[in-house]
């Protein structure tokens, strides 16, 4: 089992939530304020660690079996994301999907760090089912 921080479509009610195969929710949490947060073409969110100018991101932490990560959750993620480790607000380390370095300058990135929450951003834009 591995603790996995989710901040987009795999959260409760999201289109990828079933990919968790029933993994239990451990906590609703925030990251440490060390991340720029992006909307990638209004399709999904992506975090990128920074040394300055970062914010905190809202998400959910799940206790996910490694086989579920390998066989279901990670393959369902878009190619712009990769598995990484993030710091939570309480200082704990947690797995998460993060923006690949090669995608940081992508033309369809919109900085949504001020929102810090994918659902809040989607609601502000009238985006449904994200």
From TrEMBL:
InterPro entries: AH_C, GGCT-like, GGCT-like_sf. It comes from Amycolatopsis arida. Residues 4-122 form the Allophanate hydrolase C-terminal domain. This is Allophanate hydrolase C-terminal domain-containing protein. It comes from the Bacteria.
């Amino acid at each position: 089992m591995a603790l996995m921080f989710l901040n987009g479509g795999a959260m409760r009610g999201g289109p990828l939530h079933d990919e968790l195969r029933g993994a239990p929710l451990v906590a609703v949490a925030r990251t440490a304020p060390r991340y720029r947060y992006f909307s990638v073409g209004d399709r999904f969110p992506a975090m990128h660690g920074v040394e300055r100018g970062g914010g905190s991101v809202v998400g959910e932490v799940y206790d996910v079996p490694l086989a579920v990560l390998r066989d279901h959750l990670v393959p369902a993620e878009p190619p712009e994301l990769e598995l990484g480790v993030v710091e939570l607000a309480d200082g704990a380390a947690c797995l998460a999907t993060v923006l690949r370095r090669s995608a940081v300058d992508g033309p369809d990135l919109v900085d949504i760090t001020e929102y810090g929450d994918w659902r809040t951003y989607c609601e502000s834009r009238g985006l449904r089912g994200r």
